[in-house]
Structure formats: C-alpha cells, structure tokens
Amino acid sequence: MKLIRIRHKLLALLLGINITLLGVSLYFSLNNSGTQLRHVMLKELRNSAGITSALLKNSLNEAFATAKIIAKFPGLMDALRKNDQKLAIDLLAQLDKELKQEYSSAWVGIFRNGRCWISDPANQEEKISAEPSKSFIQRIDLQDDQLMFHIQAPIYLESDLTPAAFLVLRQPLKNDFLDNVSELTGNNVTIANSRMEFITTTIRDQEGLRVKMRIEQKSLDTMYELETPGEAYPQLALTQKMPERDDFFLIISKSASALYENLAANQLFFGQLSVIIIILTFLIATLIARQFTRPIDSLVQGVTAVSKGDLDYRVTADTRDEIEFLASEFNIMAGKLKEKIGDLVSTNLKLDQKNRELAYINRANHAIINYPDVSQLLSKILEIVIEAIGCEHGSIMLLEENLLRTKVVKWTGREIGLSENIVLQKNQGIAGRAVETGEAVLVNDVSECDFFRPYEDQELNSNCRNMLCVPLTVENLTIGVINLLNKKDRFSIEDQKLGLSLAGEVAIALRNRQLYELAITDGLTGIYIHRYFQARLDEEMFRSRRFNTPLSLIMFDIDHFKNFNDRYGHQIGDIVLRHVAHTAKAAIRQEIDFISRYGGEEFAVVCPGTPYDGAVKLAERIRFSIETSAVSSAGLQHSETLKVTCSFGVSSFTEKLSKKELIELADSALYKAKEAGRNRVC
C-alpha cells in the first residue's frame, strides 16, 4: 500500500486552506466585478432607452407641429367655411404631394360631420375617426408592419368654441431612424407589439439583413439575455414601453461579448495572481511541514523497519513532547511484539495442521456419503489418506474371523507388486500389532523393527523403507487397519494423529454399514427381511405415483417345501432356501430390483420401472433359473442332488391400489399358479 506522508498531508492542509481562502476571495472578486460590469451595462442600456424614447418623442412632436401648421392653412379654412369638399380635397392632394416627397406612405385627411375627405385614392377605404372629447391626439400606430405617427388636430373657424373639423395626419417613421438611433447610442433597438411579437430591429446578420428573432416576455426595466440567431454571444437587453403608447415596447440591447471579454480578462488576471500566490504558499508550507515532520519521519522509519521484520530496530527522538513519548512506547512495543510473534507462529502452525486435518476429514465424510458400495468407499478413502499423509503406497485390511484380509491396495509412485491377497494373523507383523493393541504403530526404519513381517518377494522387502499402521477402531472394537508405506522423509507424530482422525471416521462408517446390513438382511438367505420389504415398497409406490412410472410385484414360494423338511430334515430345508434366494437374486436386475424373504418359504421381488408384462418375463426367468439348477447337499447325510421348483404370482401397481391390495393381488395370483399345477407364473 502506498502511504501518504504526514508532511504531504500537512502541506496539503496548508495549501488547501490557502486555496480555499483564495478561491472564496476570487469568487467574491469575480462576482463583484461581474456585478459592477452588469450595473454599467444596465445604466448604459437605460440611457440608450431614454435617448431613443426622447428621439421618438421629438419626431412625434415634429409631426404634430406639421399637423398644426396644415390645420391653420388659410385655403383649407376657406374650403371648410364654404363647405367646398372639392376644393378641400385639391388642397389635401397638394399637401400629400409635398409630404410624399419625404415620406412615401404619408397622407393627410379631414374628418367632418362623420365623413372623411382624403385625396389619396389608395386610402379611400381607410377608416379615420375623430375623438371630439380631445382637442389634440398624437400617438404611434402600427400599420402594415410599419410604425406610423398618428396626429389629430382640431380646425377652428373664427371664434367658434367647437372644432369645425379634425385634421388627421399619418406619417411613417423614417426607415433609417432606428439605425441612426443605434449608431448614436451604440446599442441595438428592437420594437415589439403588446404580445411581444417582433416588428423590427437594427440587428443585422452577416448579409446585412435585419434579423428576425423570438422575444420572450420579460419584466420592464430589467436587464436580461436575448438570444440572437447566428451570433456567438447573446444580447444583453432592456425592455421599456414606447412613448405615448402602452401596447408597443422598445427593446434596447447590446452584445454581451464585451461583458464576457471583460470577465475573461478579469479571470485571467486573477488566475495569474492565484498561481503566484499558490507557488509562494507552497514554498512556505514546505518549509513549515519539513521542520514539523522530521521527528515523525524517524518514527515512520522505525515502523517500516518493524513491518519488514526487523524487530530489533529502535527509534530515537529528542523532541521532549508527545512524539518522544510515542517513540519510547514504540520501542517497548517492538520488544513485546517480538515475543508474541514466536507464540503466534507456533499457534498458526497448529491451526494450519488442524485445518488441513479437517479438510481431509471433510473429504472422507463426503466419500462416505456418496459411495454406498463398500469396495468403492475403501478405495476412495485410501486414496484420500495416501494424499493426506504424502506416502507412496497404502492398503486397507479388514478383520474377518480373526484374520486380516487385504481389501484394497493403492500406490502413487511406481508399482512394487503389493498384493491384494495378503492375509495376516491378528497379531502378525506391524499391521497385526496395530490391530492387537488398538493403537497406531509408526516405524521409520523397517530393517530395525523386530516384529516387521518380511514379504516373500525380496524386491518388496528392499523397497519397503518406513511404515505407519493405523487401526480402524470404533467403540473399543478394532475392525481393520490402514497400512501406509514409504513416505519420502519420515512419518511424523502429526501424520500419526491425522491418520488416526481419518481412520476413526472410516471405522464409524464401516461399522454403521455393517450394523445396518445385519439389521435389514435375513441371516439364513442373505437377502432383505420382511420389514425392509415393507418400507421399500412404500418408497417405490410413492415414487411411482409422483413420477407416473410403472411398478410391479412378484411373489413366489417353493413348491412342496414341507416335503423337503419332512423327508430330508431342516438342514436340507435351509440349504434349499439359500439356494432359491441366491438363484433368484442372481436373475434380477442388480441395484434396481430387490428381493426379500416374505415369510417361511415365500419370497417377494419389487420391480421399479417395470410394467406387468416385463414383470411376468422376469418371473419366468427366475422360475426357469431355479428349475434348471440343482441343489447339492454334499457333506450332509443326504448327498443326492435335489430338484426345486417354485410358483409365481405377479401384480402391477396403479394409483387406486393400496399397498395391501397390491400384495393381495400378487398373493392371489400365486395361489392360482399353485392351483393350476405349480411351477408356473400367473
């Protein structure tokens, strides 16, 4: 793991504090700078808005002055006195001509007694209305997307108190008016209607065309950003009402590029200043950190040395503070740690040995569970024990009638011809000594062992170097021995303990299997007993119902069995029973069908997965095997050869049948076979 030194942490802390303070200062400085720049921009936009409004108002006043002059034109007043419409229209036509020299779409008209007098034919349909309640009206209107000055001035004749008519002047705003205002103020001018719909602007694209833009409703007299198509920066804009009109808005805007450029310049300046400050802070912080952490570095070196195994390293520190105390305590700790490590190493070795032992015991238990066949189990167990001990060869011998018989032999190196047929007396050789004493016997040099039994083959004797024999003992009863030969170095006490642990598990498993087999096996015939038959039949019926598989039952007994007992005696009768049981067991499917003694001379065969027809064929095969085999009674009083036959009854299981009904059907079929003449299948 890469460590971060305290010096670096202290340096980082000092730099962090400085940079944090510097960052806060920069933030407020830049924010204040940006705020000031925005205030300046807002003030400029407000001034531009005031100038634009004043210029619009001035243009409106000029148009109003023009209207007042026209209203006092003598010829026009004479036409009104005479009510001469033709003369008035001629005069208006002359005035229109003069106005159109400057404003192409300007026109003038008179509204009198609800009628409109106008000279321009194109505007004959123009609705002109007067507002008698007001003497003068001046405002800005929008007509055909063009801003127009609308001037209404009353015309008085002599000393009349009420106007004789109203002069209406419509004069458009000059095309270059907004551009002149923009050039004068240095800002752009945009006009929008009451719905904030774009009307016109001084903002132009690269081709010189006025830009059409989308305007959002914003608060009046508040600066905001206005997105402009085709420009990199937005416009900083201010919205105000048009003079003399509440339904038109002036939007004064200026490109934000200057603001952003000023902000960027400020950021660059403050950034350069920050770099200089950080460099100076780094140099000062480095000096402070180095002086402060020097004794800590010495302590770190001591910790590093101890972590690498140098428990004799001692730290020196003369600071007269907590660090010196820490160094002293560290030296004491290193001494005690050296003592404890020795104990831990020993404990760890024991734990490793125990874990290894448990791992092999677990493998042995797994083999005990998964290998129902005793021969396969012994072979697997011996393989595990040889691997655990690390020897070349091994064998397992079981005690049968006071003789040790070899059941399985394995080797991991080259084969030395170790025979599986070796038989020893209970107290013969090293293996016999282990069985007789019930204790493990360890011999690391067999040439010096007095009770080592040499092999008949001299090559075997020369290849046998050392030997460990572990008894298979359960409840103070020794049932066999595990023999281990030729470990590369020497057999140790730990090997002996591990061998005893594994042998104990194996002995219990073997003993339990022996007891279980005795419990479910008929002592005379060697086949299953009636109680086991009942339990297995329940299991097979349950399996047949669950998986919908066929199941059949065969019941048979020996024909005229009583005659054998009466004529030859019960010993011959027992021989006949064993012969029939062994012959029938050999004829059925091994590890699938199972045969049991039902009672007396009657037997039962359960056939899982076999339908009725298949069970009949199997029964016929058993019947034929028994009929064609002879029972030899050599060695008894009657040495003649006996012929035995049997009668068979077969039934097949269905879901509606109970166990009792299934047995009764097979038994009924058996009696039919007897009634039909025996030695047959029904």
What this model shows, in words?
This protein starts with 5 loop residues before the first helix and ends in a 7-residue tail after the last helix. It is elongated, with a radius of gyration of 61 Å. By secondary structure, the protein is of the alpha+beta class. The model is unreliable at 413-418 (pLDDT under 50). The protein has helices spanning 6-71, 74-81, 85-100, 177-185, 257-307, 322-370, 374-389, 429-437, 458-463, 493-520, 530-547, 561-568, 570-587, 612-628, 659-675; strands at residues 107-112, 115-118, 137-143, 146-155, 165-172, 188-193, 198-201, 224-226, 235-241, 248-255, 391-400, 403-411, 423-425, 441-443, 467-474, 477-487, 551-558, 594-599, 602-608, 630-632, 641-643, 646-652. 49% of the residues lie in helices and 21% in strands. Strand 11 (391-400) and strand 12 (403-411) form a beta hairpin. A six-stranded antiparallel β-sheet has the order 13-12-11-16-15-14, with helices on both faces. A five-stranded antiparallel β-sheet has the order 2-1-5-4-3, covered by helices on one side. The chain has a five-stranded antiparallel β-sheet with strand order 7-6-10-9-8.
